[in-house]
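Hey all, quick one. A colleague (J.T.) asked me to put the nicotinamide-adenine-dinucleotide job into the tracker so the inputs and the structure tokens live in one place instead of scattered across chat threads. No bug as far as I know, just bookkeeping. Sequence used:
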Amino acid sequence: MPAPYKDRFAGKKVLVTGASQGIGEATARRFAEEGAQVALNGRKEDKLIAVRDKLPKAAVGDHAIATGDISKEADVKRLMQESIETMGGLDVLVCNAGYQIASPSEDIKLEDFEGVMAVNVTGVMLPCREAIKYWLENGINGVIIVNSSVHQIIPKPHYLGYSASKGAVDNIVRTLALEYASRGIRVNAVAPGAIVTPINMSWINDPEQYKNVSSHIPMKRPGESREIADAITFLAAEDSTYITGQTLFVDGGLTLFGDFEKNWSS
Ligand code: NAD
């Protein structure tokens, strides 16, 4: 589906973490389709180059490759500095990279819990810190959008690290939004429900499981990555200049207590 707007981000420079596939890739493409120059972060350079090769060309300069592990301080400092140099600036930061590991909570391995927290929480804090520092030093009204999850508020048994990390993201967003609101920096989040991306292939490719997942969603279908990109770009655009510290749930109604659609309690 083509981008609904044209040139909404002409001249803007955008860094997207975790842009080698899924929601990050769709978001980077949407920004590029609307005129932005994009820096693509991920850990594997070849995958990022393959994504970049499919993007519409930037009007000025090339889209940047920002290889590195977003949970590692030295990587983040280097890749953000390189991206800013390559693009000649930074206007929008999308903290998208994230993952989850399943385990009964009584057996959760410390390294698994800490690994998820490192990417989903530290991997948000570090690029936010670097971007904000750059914006304050250069008088830029930057925008941050963090990719959270409906599990920011819906408990997720067997995914303790993931639930904890997305809960933490809410307070990162609200705290940074308040701390920098008076200095022209906006910070918001999107919280997707069940989205068709590579990490969900186990149920996407199984018709029974796909039906089961869909049955729990009030709109009776999972979302597409481009529908999350729609929300992320809205929060980055001139359409949302008075919005900060908010989480926009993009979930087909998943957070509306679907069980109560038909009255069963009175
Ligand atoms: P995905 O696995 O398809 O993509 C995740 C991306 O993050 C990949 O490019 C991966 O390489 C990158 N990444 C992982 N660890 C990294 C690290 N340490 N450094 C740099 N990059 C790293 O996942 P997705 O479904 O597109 O999810 C993206 C975001 O959306 C995540 O934060 C996830 O929690 C959130 N989310 C997804 C869904 C869903 O149903 N797919 C639902 C709610 C929230």
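Adding what we noticed when we looked at it: The chain has one domain: 13-248. The CA atoms of residues 218 and 262 lie 11 Å apart.
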